[in-house]
Each structure stands twice: as C-alpha cells, then as structure tokens.
Amino acid sequence: MGLVSPYWLLVAFTIFANFSNNVFVLNNSWLKSIEYYHICDNRARMKYTLKRTFKTITAPTIAIAACFLSNLYSPFLPIRSIALFHSIMIVVNYVLLFVMIPPMIIFVDEKLRPALSYVWNNIH
Question: What is the DSSP-derived secondary structure letter of residue 97?
Fold first, then answer.
C-alpha cells in the first residue's frame, strides 16, 4: 500500500470536512446574531453564538469519533491504529475549534472587514 494508504487520506478528509462545517456553523451564527437579534457587544454576540451552536457542533463530532472508535474491535492492527488516531484527532479538532476560531471571528469582524470594505468601496 505504500507510505500513504487510502485510510490516512480518509482521516485527513474527514477532519477537514468536519472542521470546515463547524467553522461555517459558527460564522453563520455570528453573522445572524447581529442581523436578526441586533446584539452589538462582541462578548454578548460570541456568548450567543457559542450557546446556539454548541449542540450543533458537538453532536456530529461525537458521532464521527464514535464511528471510528467502533473500528477498535477490528482484528487488523492497522485499522485499529487508524481508528484510534482518527478519533483522537477529531476530539483535538473539536477543542481547537473552540479555542482558535472565536477569536479569529472577532478579529475579522473588528479589524479585517472594515479595512476590506473600505478597499472594496474605493475600487471604482
């Protein structure tokens, strides 16, 4: 099978797909918090965003980790090792999502979006 088996590519794809979906859910809830609920304070917006999206993000993460943990009962050692590694990476991905993405969303909203809108409006 070589150095990179299709299973390792599956691990990378699943982690990337899960993370991008979770970032989309967080960002969408962040944008809706000001559009529909008119919450202007960033701390209150982020609290609302995390409260609203916690179950939506946690359920698929637990399901994916549990699916791969079920492969620990496989008689094949490579399948078991990939399943354990994948489950650990999904949990690490989940933790990093809540540690890294909320500050990035606030940074983009406070600093980057006004600068980009200024540049975008003055292009013509």
Answer: H
